[in-house]
Write a structure and sequence with these properties.
It is built from 10 helices and 21 strands. The chain is α+β, with helices and mostly antiparallel strands. The protein has 3 domains: 6-121, Aminopeptidase (3-Layer(aba) Sandwich), CATH 3.40.630.30; 141-282, 3-Layer(aba) Sandwich (Aminopeptidase); 299-386, SCP2 sterol-binding domain (Nonspecific Lipid-transfer Protein, Chain A, 2-Layer Sandwich). Bound molecules: coenzyme A.
Length: 398
């Protein structure tokens, strides 16, 4: 319980500079900061005007803050409104008083009431967010290789072309590809238009791969130095041809850069991109700076329509204000239906346990071994069948 003197209230994006900026900058940036930092923050605020920003105040002083960005995410074929939780920080003198717990509980409820049915965030420490029902997903991989390793692509005649544009010029097509992948890829998440607009001015190149005018791949990147490194974000492609076109584009930097670093999902296998191909593919996880996103469900009935295998299981989720209760999960004809349960539950799951199954990162046995629930032996097979392992690829960083 928070002290009575503590008030939690929603603020506008314009109010964030006076209230959230000092907390966020202290928590996440080198400090003390300079005046210019505050102005730069203020300029960015229009991009946060659709976010839900909450602060906790005591005697007029802001002690903690948290926000939810309006995003969308594909979870096993169904596109949900997603609350992208960010800007979570508290004043160092106010930590460990339960203030952030109060803020997050209110934030998740409000996001759910506004229509968000799932949520994701990048944790500074997963065990903190596990207390709020979140479960981990894989971190992206970074493939590092010398362009000469892809020499077989230099002169390959591929039925398509790649155009290099500034982010400003390529932004619309880059965005449309994100929208398309939102419909096609499990886990893929995108910002709303308001938040995404900030990236239009990023000082980056974007390489757009097209076949007969249709965009089949895109990657944004910057060149660090001549003879040095090329740093690319996610290698986005609709299929193998889009990927090959983008790799060919990288290969043609052979006399310009020594190494290419590109982000890939867990289902990419860069060592298969060429013969005699030297490549290192790494996922570095060390908190608080490098980790995978965490995810959770905010609304159970909204899961109806998710792609699922066959099965019929009643599960209980104890003690969660948003998704707690008895739920019957039925998979038929390739789709899940979620209704209020009445039968004796065959599994008792934490929100993290249920979310781990839904997002395809944990199977029922792992849910038990990770301490995220109890599953009767008879329920292991139907839960595995309903929720086959399938790694999500979130792509967006926030
Ligand atoms: C992380 C931070 C926001 C926590 O704020 P806080 O006000 O101390 O959090 P609360 O007191 O509300 O604690 C909430 C719960 O998390 C637990 N907790 C707090 N810090 C924790 C930590 N580092 N690791 C694991 N659990 C933690 C508390 O014990 C409490 O548990 P309970 O409610 O289940 O009993 C604050 O320490 C901070 O601003 N850190 C720097 C910025 C940062 O890392 N932000 C997170 C970005 S993702």
């Amino acid at each position: 319980m928070l002290d009575e003197s503590m008030e939690i209230r929603q603020i506008s994006a314009a109010e964030r500079t006076a209230t959230m900026f000092p907390l966020q900058t202290y928590a996440f940036m080198p400090s003390p900061w300079t005046e210019g930092d505050e102005e730069a923050y203020e300029k960015r605020m229009p991009f946060f005007s659709t976010a839900i920003s909450l602060i906790a105040e005591e005697h007029g002083q802001t002690l903690a803050c948290a926000a939810a960005l309006r995003m969308r995410q594909n979870v096993r074929g169904k596109v949900h409104d997603m609350a992208g939780v960010a800007s979570v920080a508290s004043h160092p003198s106010a930590r460990r008083r339960g203030i952030v717990r109060g803020l997050l509980e209110r934030l998740l409820r409000q996001a759910r009431d506004d229509g968000s049915t799932v949520s994701a965030l990048y944790p500074f420490r997963p065990s903190f967010y596990a207390r709020f029902g979140y479960v981990g997903t894989p971190r992206h991989r970074i493939a590092t290789f010398a362009p000469e390793g892809l020499a077989h692509l230099h002169r390959a005649e591929l039925p398509g072309e790649v155009e290099r544009l500034s982010m400003r010029d390529g932004f619309a097509e880059w965005q449309r590809l994100h929208e398309r992948l939102l419909g096609e890829r499990h886990g893929f998440a995108v910002y709303d238009e308001t938040r995404a607009a900030e990236f239009r001015d990023d000082k980056r190149w974007v390489a757009i791969a097209r076949v007969d005018g249709e965009v089949v791949g895109a990657v944004d990147y910057r060149v660090g130095s001549y003879g040095g490194d090329l740093y690319a974000s996610d290698l986005l492609a609709t299929g193998p041809l889009g990927r090959a076109l983008l790799l060919q584009f990288f290969a043609r930097h052979v006399d310009q850069v020594a190494r290419v670093h590109v982000r890939v999902s867990t289902d990419e296998v860069p060592e298969l991109w060429g013969t005699d191909f030297t490549v290192t593919t790494e996922a570095k996880v060390d908190q608080p700076r490098h980790g995978g996103a965490m995810v959770r469900v905010l609304d159970m009935p909204a899961l109806t329509g998710t792609a699922a295998g066959s099965g019929d299981v009643t599960v209980e989720i104890p003690d969660d204000p948003l998704v707690g209760g008895l739920w019957r999960l039925t998979g038929e004809g390739g789709h899940l239906t979620v209704t209020k349960g009445t039968a004796t539950p065959a599994a008792t799951l934490t929100v993290g346990g249920l979310s781990g199954l839904l997002y395809g990162v944990l199977d029922p046995i792992e849910v038990v071994t990770r301490g995220l629930g109890q599953v009767d032996s008879a329920a292991v097979a139907p839960l595995s069948s309903l929720f086959p392992r399938q790694m999500p690829y979130i792509c967006a960083d926030f």
